[in-house]
Design goal:
Number of strands: 0
Largest sheet: none
Distance between the termini: 112 Å
Helix content: over 70%
Order of helices and strands: HH
Strand content: under 5%
Number of helices: 2
């Protein structure tokens, strides 16, 4: 009985090793390498696209903050209502 158990164990382990080795050998064929390379490039392109989208979103948010802070989106004054602040020593005389 023990010999039958060890024989079955050896056959099972042998089959698993052969399957793993055949998968590894398949990955080393030109088609396997090309497939791995294509998958890697596809993932890289997706990561670059995601990064670009994140940068554009962050830039839009920052631009909105800067526009709000500087008042660039405020309505323009009507003609004749423009009054520029005076600067310099003579500004205190007004």
């Amino acid at each position: 009985m023990r010999r039958l158990f060890w024989l079955a164990m050896g056959v099972t382990i042998g089959a698993l090793v052969v399957r793993r080795l055949s998968r590894a050998a398949e990955k080393l064929t030109p088609q396997g390498i090309a497939g791995s390379l294509a998958d890697g490039l596809r993932e890289l392109a997706e990561a670059i696209g995601d990064f670009g989208a994140d940068v554009r979103a962050a830039a839009a948010v920052r631009e909105d903050e800067l526009r709000a802070g500087t008042g660039l989106d405020a309505p323009l004054p009507a003609r004749g209502e423009v009054s520029l602040p005076r600067r310099g020593a003579h500004a205190a005389d007004s």
